[in-house]
UniProtKB/TrEMBL annotation, chain A:
Classification lineage: Bacteria, Bacillati, Bacillota, Bacilli, Bacillales
Organism: Paenibacillus methanolicus
Name recorded for this polypeptide: Raffinose/stachyose/melibiose transport system permease protein
Protein family according to the UniProt entry: Belongs to the binding-protein-dependent transport system permease family.
Any single GO BP term: transmembrane transport
Chief location: membrane
One Pfam assignment: BPD_transp_1
TrEMBL record, chain B:
Basic and acidic residues composition-biased segments: 416-430
Species this chain originates from: Paenibacillus methanolicus
Lineage: Bacteria, Bacillati, Bacillota, Bacilli, Bacillales
Keyword Signal: yes
Highest taxon of source: Bacteria
Identification of the protein by name: Raffinose/stachyose/melibiose transport system substrate-binding protein
Stored SUPFAM superfamilies: Periplasmic binding protein-like II
Keywords, alphabetical: Signal
Gene3D superfamilies in UniProt: Periplasmic binding protein-like II
Leader peptide range in chain numbering: 1-20
From TrEMBL, chain C:
Segments crossing the lipid bilayer: 12-32, 75-96, 108-128, 157-180, 216-237, 267-288
Protein name: Raffinose/stachyose/melibiose transport system permease protein
Subcellular location(s) of the protein: Cell membrane
Membrane topology recorded in Swiss-Prot or TrEMBL: Multi-pass membrane protein
Pfam families according to UniProt: BPD_transp_1 (PF00528)
Principal localisation: membrane
Keyword Transmembrane set for record: yes
PROSITE patterns: ABC_TM1 (PS50928)
Record Gene3D superfamilies: MetI-like
Gene Ontology biological process terms in this record: transmembrane transport
Annotated InterPro entries: ABC_transporter_permease, MetI-like, MetI-like_sf
Domain ABC transmembrane type-1: 71-284
């Protein structure tokens, strides 16, 4: 009765060397493909074919320079950034607004609209591609970044509304807002000044989910962006592959240049996300 | 860290409010659509060309166009082969699409029937029949035939010399060659059978020798496309004989896990002695192994002869009938249809030949071994005569052969399955 | 209702409007048009003047091997992903919630694969899993004296190999969500359990897991839905092959609609599929929320 809890406690507090060693080993295995991707970017085609896993003979950034030039990297990066930032902002703002409106009203109509959004989670929206294409064409948006942004917002808002909605219902207190109304604040003012700042943690989650999706989306840009000056990163990577490509050493630097900003973004957001989501984004 | 993140979100919020036009007292305005498409401002006319090969494969040609037609800017759009047909069909159906459309023979017939393509018969006289027939419908030309493509079997000359081996002249010799190499511990043939294409081509190479080359089967491919003939009634013996390559283990299940790229690697680095492919691979092979010596032999049947290569007119360039710049498009096509244009095109597709009348190019040394085959005119791709659904049919056929290689199906079933797919696809209408 | 209440109601509606507009225009409308196409003769050869053909396209689905394979693979894939992504992610999260010296580094490494596009993952793993002499995993197996495994070319294991690559990619993602949830669990609950003498294992079952229900919910449901809709990684790794062994509903849809040109039959595919995903998701959500009630 008196000794057992102590021993259990002590066992827990002992530093878990073995566990850490196993985890490090596992992480090393998980890292191998990424390592392979990275070392290949510094090799010549011959070296890559003969010694795929060895460290490169030297840190030759020539492959990167070539990739940078072939992709017209500054331009595609700017396009990708515009599409991603605008889409993510659109998704975050519109979804937060809609989720707020839906969470604070409970007419049958509102509930129906909420379920309509929920259903969107389950719809493989790629299936509507033919009509979507015709629509974009009819709207005169073909070959403009706006087309991709709009489609991203249309498809990305469902999961975002789902997350915002459950968060607002569980963790944004109504009392504050009511007293604001009493003071004569309008609905939009109440939302922007009181509710929206409280949504920060879930905004982080939505922003990360949407950024990953939009950045790595390939189908929409492929369909709706046609001229080269509007290309995004993945399109440019693809354009350099061709039907019969084998030149890994020039392809991989492009892939690296394609994900580098995303990795930086994640490293920047990581801490915040884990902390932020902890604040209760997952209640519901 | 925390502070930085908060700052980020404040900035984000400010931008987003500006974007949405949200002020304190109204909900939001939508950014208005319709302002997106920028029309060209410069005096240069922009003409978009979509193609499924890397820009590298036409770079000399594009440079020539830029030089000769200074008032036209050709915008090259690469679309991967896997998506190409989807995207182009969707774009054309919506009344847009590239100004110059790269087409395969079957796609050109398909799109021509739907009215997507401009009649360019004005250029027809410059090309010889072999090239223009596949791109014509109802006597009108809808695409100019590009530099031809072909595939045969590459072999590593050094390995052959080292073991005193000679390229075969019949299929039986080819099997013996495989055996000899295997006995020496060398992988006889590399194949990227993860794709459905190489087995499809390899087997058809044999069928062309054994079946299609016979005069009585001259019209078989057309009849098959129309549903009058069946593969299961005609090709079984030939494909079964070809499948000795599978039975003897020279093509094996392991190859279903190998890509085109990896097969090329195996061949280029000397791990495999032979590889079925075509001229476009040469540059990559030499890059991987600058010292390799390569030659090619054609597909053989049971009897000796010049053999056959699989191939045909390359890409066709067609004019979109909805193009906003029909004159500019015609100027470009006209330039390609000159000896100078063909030379520039050939420059990045060495090994192929031109269909422009009176234009001939010298064959690079790597293709010495198939000279006789070319002389005999034995270059053919059966599906070019299979009609509109050819692309789906060869995919079905190739995928069925993968099942044969995987051991879960027989040659007879594979051919029957392809026949069934042909019947199913006829529901599409014509 | 006075004017002020009216204005408030209007304001709430205006809040919903932008998202609804984008959603209806760019997702709902294109999708709904599929219901229409699924009862017409819309194919690549017949694009205008469509006529009504009743349920013909649906009848075609029943005899279709492709649909059966696709359905089987999609469900198998989704179930495997849901089970393993959730359980492995949970294990990683629990371990990496402890105070390890390399904790932050490990978290980053496990999450890192999530930033890659399916395109890149396809290249990488296609190469690693190849049976050619350059397939790195098989080189390793052979060096260990084991036989080669035909990861992507053997029809009986190709789908599992794809699941493996996707677990590589997405387990870290699940881990991050679980980690977030773990930090919201008050530490005094563990102290109470400590005093009760519960072992680490028991603590996990009694204290941790019940409180993890919200995140398990999110991860499991999104893994299931995402799994049922999977297509890009399949196209990148096997293109549905060998033969049609790894076709999923979505790749079968793409093949039928775009490669072959049967937009109408593809649309019927989509409609049936939508029903299936909806049913599975609803059943699962109900089950998960019951679990939530039970353990609270």
């Amino acid at each position: 009765m008196t000794t057992r809890p102590y021993s259990a406690k002590r066992r827990l507090r002992r530093y878990p060397w073995i566990l850490e060693a196993i985890l490090i080993l596992l992480a090393a295995v998980v890292f191998v493909p990424v390592y392979y991707l990275i070392v290949t970017t510094f090799k010549s085609p011959e070296e890559a074919a003969l010694h795929p896993l060895s460290l490169p003979a030297g840190l030759d950034f020539g492959n990167y320079a070539a990739a940078w030039e072939a992709m017209v990297y500054p331009r595609v990066l700017a396009n990708t950034a515009i599409v991603t930032i605008a889409s993510v902002i659109g998704i975050v703002v519109f979804s937060a607004m809609a989720a707020y409106g839906l969470a604070r009203r409970s007419h049958t109509l509102h509930r129906a609209i909420f379920y309509l959004f929920l259903a969107g989670l389950m719809v493989p929206f790629q299936m509507g591609l033919v009509s979507l294409y015709k629509l974009i064409n009819a709207l005169g948006l073909m070959d403009s970044l706006l087309a991709v942004i709009f489609v991203n917002i249309g498809s990305g808002c469902t999961i975002a509304i789902f997350l915002f909605h459950s968060f607002i219902q569980s963790s944004v207190p109504l009392e504050l807002e009511e007293s604001a109304f009493m003071d004569g604040c309008s609905v939009p003012k109440t939302f922007w000044l009181i509710a929206f700042p409280l949504l920060k943690p879930v905004i982080a989650t939505v922003a990360i989910v949407s950024t990953l999706n939009v950045w790595n989306d390939f189908m929409n840009p492929l369909l709706f962006l046609q001229s080269r000056e509007h290309n995004v990163i993945l399109l440019e990577v693809f354009r350099n592959i061709g039907q019969f490509s084998v030149d890994w050493t020039s392809l991989f630097p492009m892939l690296m240049l394609g994900v580098a900003p995303l990795m930086a973004f994640y490293l920047f957001m990581q801490k915040y996300m884990i902390k932020g989501v902890a604040a209760g984004a997952l209640k519901g | 860290m925390r502070k930085a993140s908060i700052t980020l979100f404040v900035v984000l919020m400010a931008i987003s409010m500006a974007l949405a036009g949200c002020s304190g007292n109204n909900g939001s305005n939508l950014p208005n659509g319709g302002e997106g498409s920028e029309k060209e401002t410069a005096e240069k006319v922009k003409v978009r060309l979509a193609y499924w090969n890397k820009e590298d494969s036409v770079k000399t040609l594009l440079a020539l166009i830029a030089k000769k037609l200074p008032d036209i800017e050709v915008e090259y759009q690469f679309i991967d082969n896997k998506q190409y047909d989807n995207i182009i069909a969707t774009q054309l159906a919506a009344g847009s699409g590239p100004d110059i459309v790269s087409v395969s023979p079957s796609a050109s017939t398909k799109y021509a029937k739907l009215g997507y393509l401009q009649d360019i018969s004005a250029l027809a006289d410059r090309y010889n029949d072999a090239g223009k027939n596949v791109y014509s419908a109802d006597g009108k030309l809808y695409a100019i035939p590009g530099i031809s493509w072909f595939e045969g079997i590459f072999y590593n000359v050094d390995i052959f010399d080292q073991y005193g081996l000679k390229p075969p002249s019949t299929f039986a010799e080819e099997l013996a060659l495989h055996k000899a190499l295997k006995d020496k511990g060398i992988k006889p043939q590399a194949m990227g059978a993860k794709s459905w294409e190489p087995m499809m081509k390899s087997s058809m190479g044999y069928v062309m020798n054994e079946f299609l080359a016979k005069p009585e089967n001259k019209d078989f491919d057309v009849q098959f496309g129309q549903g009058a003939k069946k593969l299961a009634d005609s090709w079984v013996p030939a494909v079964e004989q070809w499948s000795a390559l599978i039975q003897d283990g020279y093509l094996n299940e392991e190859m279903l896990g190998i890509d085109y790229d990896q097969a090329l690697d195996e061949f280029a680095t000397g791990k495999a002695a032979m590889w079925e492919s075509g001229p476009w691979a040469m540059e990559a092979i030499k890059k991987k192994n600058p010292n390799i010596k390569v030659n090619m032999f054609p597909f053989y049947g049971s009897q000796p002869g010049p053999g056959w290569l699989i191939g045909g007119p390359g890409v066709g360039f067609a004019a979109n009938s909805k193009s906003a710049h029909p004159e500019a498009v015609m100027k470009v096509l006209d330039l390609i249809s000159t000896p100078e244009g063909q030379q520039a095109f050939w420059n990045d597709n060495k090994g192929g030949s031109s269909y422009l009348k009176g234009v001939e190019f010298e064959m690079p040394a790597e293709y010495e071994g198939v000279k006789e085959t070319f002389k005999a005119g034995n270059v053919y791709a059966p599906w070019n005569n299979w009609g509109d659904n050819a692309q789906s049919l060869i995919e079905e056929y190739g995928k069925r052969l993968q099942e044969v290689l995987g051991g879960s199906s027989s040659v007879g079933d594979a051919l029957k399955g392809t026949d069934e797919k042909r019947a199913e696809l006829s529901d599409l209408g014509s | 209702m006075n004017q002020r209440t009216w204005k408030r109601e209007l304001n709430y509606s205006l809040f919903i409007a932008p998202a609804l507009l984008f959603y209806v225009l760019f997702s709902v409308y294109p999708f709904l048009s599929m219901f229409y196409y699924s009862v017409t003769d819309y194919t690549v050869r017949k694009i205008t003047n469509l006529s009504f053909v009743g349920l013909d396209n649906y009848k075609h689905l029943f005899g279709s091997d492709l649909l059966r394979t696709g359905l089987k693979n999609s469900i198998l894939y989704a179930v495997l992903m849901t089970v393993f992504q959730t359980s492995l992610g949970l294990v990683l999260a629990v371990f990496l919630d402890r105070k390890l010296a390399t904790r932050n580094l490990l978290r980053s490494v496990f999450f890192m694969p999530a930033v890659f596009s399916p395109l890149i993952v396809g290249f990488l793993w296609g190469y690693l899993m190849s049976t050619s002499d350059y397939g790195l995993i098989n080189q390793g197996l052979e060096a260990l004296g084991l036989g080669k495994i035909n990861f992507l070319g053997d029809k009986d294991i190709a789908l599992y190999s794809i699941v493996f690559t996707q677990l590589w990619q997405w387990t870290g993602w699940a881990m991050v969500i679980f980690l977030a949830n773990l930090q919201s669990i008050p530490k005094d609950l563990y102290e109470a359990a400590d005093i009760d003498g519960a072992s680490g294992w028991k603590q996990f079952w009694r204290v941790t897991l019940p409180l993890m229900q919200p995140s398990v919910n999110v991860v499991a449901v999104t893994a299931m839905i995402g799994g049922l809709k999977v297509f890009d990684i399949i196209l990148a790794l096997t293109d549905g092959g060998p033969g049609n062994a790894t076709q999923t509903i979505m790749t079968a849809y793409i093949k039928t609609s775009f490669n072959e040109g049967f937009y109408n039959r593809g649309a019927a595919f989509g409609v049936v599929f939508f029903g299936i995903v909806m049913a599975i998701t609803l059943i699962m959500m109900r089950y998960l929320s019951k679990w939530g009630e039970k353990i609270r």
